[in-house]
Amino acid sequence: MPRRTMIEAIRDAMDVSMGLDERVVVFGEDVGFFGGVFRCTQGLQAKYGKTRCFDSPISESGIVGAAIGMAAYGLRPCVEVQFADYVYPAYDQIVSEAARLRYRSNGDFTCPLVVRMPTGGGIFGGQTHSQSPEALFTHVSGLKVVVPSNPHDAKGLLIAAIEDPDPVIFLEPKRLYNGPFDGHHDRPVTPWSKHELGEVPDGHFSTPLGKAATRRDGGALTVLAYGTMVYVAEAAVQETGIDADIIDLRTLLPLDLDAVVASVKKTGRCVVVHEATLTSGFGAELAALVQEHCFYHLEAPVARVAGWDTPYPHAQEWDYFPGPARVGRALVETMEA
Q1: Residues with catalytic roles
Q2: Do 56 and 107 reside in the same domain of the chain?
Q3: Where is the Transketolase-like pyrimidine-binding domain (predicted)?
Q4: Which of 133, 330, 331, 112 is nearest to 241 (CA)?
Q5: Is 271 found in the same domain as 170?
């Protein structure tokens, strides 16, 4: 089976989808001739032409607004916002138009739109290139929110997102773009972990939205994570020796609540890990759900490990994001509670 980076897997997903369905169009800032700032769309314009893969003006509201019109008309746009930090000018279009279209039209129109965005840290981008805004979208009814943690899932989930009849926010962790990440380091390493997550099949396949994956099976504690933090959690578990379940959520909305509840009821303890700031982050929703559904099974309070509630200088990126040491302390404290 071919081994691909996440960038290659994402590009392959768009290539496969464009080849199978002429309604799929790809556009955004520099995604055509240049192939995207991270090269996720490299070669697509040469293969499918300038009407299927093209550059847009530097206007996120224009990119998303045009895509919503295309989706309502019957196309399936997959657009790129160059960094998740740049999405705010388009937020009204996403919330007020894309997410509501099915309901406002009583089902007469749908919005089969994918908004791809590089998210989180990994390039020392600081406050303007390293934000993790997933909670802003999980609060919006009518959207789906996806965060893959490996190339296999990135391809399968993106194909599923493109084929979905409703708008999908597809967040791509930058730290995982170019290769393996074992959680101990601030850069990609080789080889991939025991899961062989770099293996990606050729051709068409899809990974269902709304289904979590168990990355490690354990009985003492549950770790809920997504994206880059899956590997940080794995590293923390290795360093502490705690027998933990690690659940990779993959899709935040709709959430695989059954998988979360089953794991926490089995272990009786839960630690939530995410890269975004702590206050009002998605981890707060996860903690509330675990308390609501697993209260009588819990042996300790639900713990959260997240980014600091403050903007941060570029040079302090690796102190800002949760690392194995911070996650490991939370695991130990939860076991001792």
Answers
A1: 129
A2: yes
A3: 4-179
A4: 331
A5: no
